[in-house]
Amino acid sequence: MNGPLVVRGIEIPAGELAWRFSRSSGPGGQSVNTADSRVELSFDVRGSAVLPDVLRDRMLSRLSHRLVDGVLTVVASEYRSQHRNREAARTRLAELLTEAGAPPAPRRRPTRPTRGSKERRLAGKKRRGETKALRRRPFD
User: Fold this and answer.
1) Which residue from 1, 8, 12, 117 lies 20 to 30 Å from 53 (Cα-Cα)?
2) Are 43 and 93 in contact (CB under 8 A)?
3) For residue 16, what pLDDT band results from cuts at 50, 70 and 90?
């Protein structure tokens, strides 16, 4: 739990993760007003010392809509226990960073439609036109 977070083979030390705890909303039983079970986990993507520049730039551009001053924050409050919410937040942060750090997909090579596919498309259009022609009123 307190160990490093591994993302794409890179270990993010626990010192670069910032935790905040607060009361969770919703039902919670008799300890609802005393237990700080809501968890916020923050990671400074822009200021991280362990991320390579290429990976950092990729994450910053892909997560730009979620970042506030280069810091990514994940919230977990679905469980009653703080421990399970901490695990959920770590998992969610790891998934977000892994997805954002993925290399770009290979570019699509442009291709032309085959002769057979063109003929099938035109035959389908012809059939559809004939079907619609049968619905028309005949000329008097």
Assistant:
1) 1
2) yes
3) confident
Tokens of 40: 């916020």
CA distance 102 to 21: 30
Q: Side chain identity at 42, as an amino acid letter?
A: S
CA proximity to 63, closest of 48, 77, 49: 48
CB-based contact 74:96 (threshold 8 Å): yes
CA distances from 110 to 16, 23, 113 (A): 44, 54, 10
- Cβ atoms of residues 85 and 31 within 8 Å: no
CA proximity to 46, closest of 62, 75, 67: 67
pLDDT digit string, tens, across residues 96-132: 999 998 899 999 999 999 999 999 999 999 999 999 9
Of 85, 103, 81, 84, the residue nearest 41 (C-alpha)? 85
**Which helix (H) or strand (E) element contains residue 96?**
helix 82-100
3-state SS assignment for residue 125: helix
